[in-house]
């Protein structure tokens, strides 16, 4: 079940990142051409680019958990036996789930509160709530990814940090 869900999330996150990055890149390029080529500008481009980058950040947080690239302190992992190392990963994932739960709860609360007020964006005049929705969705994605981390830590045999680094080095060569 985790493998199928993981593949679906990988695909959706990758597509979302490509879409948001493409939007930001194309519109920024277009804005530069308009500004320096035609001495004019498009008033809504900056807002769309900012919201695209924000959405990329929230999707990227989930991808970071999946690929294990978030900032971490590995000193303790290097000195403890593999069985303890497993519990360190599980504890870190549980703390991540707690954070992601708060992110999801308050993100959706912000979405619904803003939707109820009818606040609009400055340039696009779109409901501001839609640009707060990625916060809650990111919380859900992070919870799923941290559950995957716990599943991986629980089902795979514990290895030392030195063995992990050697395996990573072998993959690169």
Automatic annotation (TrEMBL):
All residue ranges annotated as the Tripartite ATP-independent periplasmic transporters DctQ component domain in the record: 25-153
Subcellular location, record wording: Cell inner membrane
Record keywords: Cell inner membrane, Cell membrane, Membrane, Transmembrane, Transmembrane helix, Transport
Pfam families, per database record: DctQ
UniProt topology in membrane: Multi-pass membrane protein
Transmembrane segments: 15-36, 48-67, 87-108, 129-148
Subunit: The complex comprises the extracytoplasmic solute receptor protein and the two transmembrane proteins.
Protein's job: Part of the tripartite ATP-independent periplasmic (TRAP) transport system.
UniProt similarity note: Belongs to the TRAP transporter small permease family.
Name the record gives this protein: TRAP transporter small permease protein
Record organism: Billgrantia aerodenitrificans
């Amino acid at each position: 079940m985790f493998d199928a869900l993981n593949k679906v999330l990988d695909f959706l996150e990758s597509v979302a990142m490509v879409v948001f990055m493409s939007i930001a890149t194309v519109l920024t390029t277009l804005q530069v051409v308009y500004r320096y080529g035609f001495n004019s500008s498009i008033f809504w481009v900056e807002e769309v680019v900012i919201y695209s980058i924000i959405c990329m950040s929230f999707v990227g947080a989930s991808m970071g958990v999946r690929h294990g690239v978030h900032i971490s302190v590995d000193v303790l992992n290097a000195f403890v036996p593999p069985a303890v190392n497993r519990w360190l990963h599980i504890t870190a994932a549980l703390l991540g789930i707690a954070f992601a739960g708060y992110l999801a709860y308050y993100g959706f609360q912000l979405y619904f509160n803003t939707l109820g007020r009818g606040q609009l964006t400055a340039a696009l005049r779109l409901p501001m709530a839609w640009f707060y929705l990625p916060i809650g969705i990111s919380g859900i994605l992070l919870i799923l990814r941290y559950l995957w981390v716990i599943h991986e830590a629980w089902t795979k045999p514990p290895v030392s940090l030195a063995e992990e680094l050697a395996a990573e080095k072998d993959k690169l060569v």
